[in-house]
């Protein structure tokens, strides 16, 4: 049973470009959560999605960031016009139902030059 | 004051030692408590999940929650070099699916 998959594992973008991060949840999981981890900081919640619905986006910056989880395909976290402060590790987690017990993917490390 | 406080360490111990990792929290509404292990450059892995106060044991790992003092602990017996990682505590309230994480404690177990 494959775990949570994220790609790319590493992403380099120049300031002003767009970054697209993809997450495929574990088989049978329909709930997806995105977190950001900065050096020397803990995991910070960004957004919680179910298929075709955003349940909670209280941790998402109001501008430049968006997320979706379509009926078919992976969940996408999109960052437009990236800035150096967006450099971080972005983790996706999934669960079979809404739950605090979540299973994490390996992360995407975004570097903005 | 952060909602979940955790000493970043590093905590360095010899192989075979008993390790005690701790967190404090400020919100008395927190009911669910979790410990994650995160190896360098990897995603967090759920180790222990407990509800309310008390102890929970799983192999060499014991999670302990003291709600009266808002203190949570993870004990690792017979520590191994493979236990070297960052340990994150997390907690959430009843009905919430969004954990609040501590910043993690770096553990180094040397042979």
Overall residue-averaged pLDDT value of chain A: 93
Global geometry of chain B: globular
Biggest sheet features of chain B = 6 strands, mixed
Structural class based on helices, strands and sheet pairing of chain B: mainly beta
Run of helices and strands of chain B: EEEEEEEEEEE
Strand content of chain A: over 45%
H/I helix tally of chain A: 0
Query: How would you describe the oligomerization state of the chains in this entry?
Result: heterodimer
The overall strand count of chain B is 11
Counting DSSP E segments of at least 2 residues, the number of strands of chain A comes to: 11
Question: What is the distance, rounded to the nearest whole angstrom, between the alpha carbons of the first and last residues of chain B?
Answer: 37 Å
What integer is the average pLDDT of chain B?
93
Structural class of chain A: mainly beta
Pick out the low-confidence regions of chain B.
Answer: none
Radius of gyration of chain A, taken over Cα atoms and rounded to an integer in Å? 13 Å
Give the SSE order of chain A as H and E letters. EEEEEEEEEEE
The value of Rg of chain B in angstroms is 13 Å
**N-to-C terminal Cα separation of chain A, in Å?**
37 Å
Structure, described:
- The complex is a heterodimer of chains A (113) and B (111).
- Chain A starts with a strand and ends with a strand.
- In chain A, strand 7 (65-68) and strand 8 form a beta hairpin.
- Chain A has strands at residues 5-7, 10-13, 19-24, 31-37, 43-50, 53-56, 65-68, 75-79, 88-95, 103-104, 108-112.
- In chain A, strands 2, 4, 5, 6, 9, 10 and 11 form a seven-stranded mixed beta sheet that branches.
- By secondary structure, chain A is an all-beta fold.
- Chain B is mainly β.
- In chain B, 0% of the residues lie in helices and 57% in strands.
- Chain B contains no helices and eleven strands.
- In chain B, the strands form two sheets. In chain B, strands 2, 4, 5, 9, 10 and 11 form a six-stranded mixed beta sheet that branches.
- The radius of gyration of chain B is 13 Å and the shape is globular.
- The mean pLDDT of chain B is 93.
- At the A-B interface, strand 5 and strand 10 of A face strand 4, strand 5 and strand 9 of B.
């Amino acid at each position: 049973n494959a775990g949570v998959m994220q790609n790319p594992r590493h992403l380099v973008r120049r300031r002003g470009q767009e970054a697209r991060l993809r997450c495929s949840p574990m088989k049978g999981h329909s709930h997806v959560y995105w977190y950001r981890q900065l050096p020397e900081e803990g995991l910070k919640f960004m957004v919680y999605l179910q298929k075709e619905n955003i349940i909670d986006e209280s941790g998402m910056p109001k501008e430049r960031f968006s997320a979706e989880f379509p009926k078919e395909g992976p969940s996408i976290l999109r960052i437009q016009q990236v800035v150096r402060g967006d450099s971080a590790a972005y983790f996706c987690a999934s669960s079979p139902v809404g739950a605090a017990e979540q299973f994490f993917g390996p992360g995407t490390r975004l570097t903005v030059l | 004051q952060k909602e979940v406080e955790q000493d970043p360490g590093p905590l360095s111990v010899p192989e075979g030692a008993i390790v005690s990792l701790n967190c404090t929290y400020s919100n008395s509404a927190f009911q669910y408590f979790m410990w994650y292990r995160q190896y360098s450059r990897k995603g967090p892995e759920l180790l222990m999940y407990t509800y309310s106060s008390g102890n929970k044991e799983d192999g060499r790992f014991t999670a302990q929650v003291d709600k009266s003092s808002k203190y949570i602990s993870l004990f690792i017996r017979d520590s191994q070099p493979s236990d070297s990682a960052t340990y994150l505590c997390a907690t959430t309230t009843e009905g919430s699916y969004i954990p609040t994480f501590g910043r993690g404690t770096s553990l180094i177990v040397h042979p």
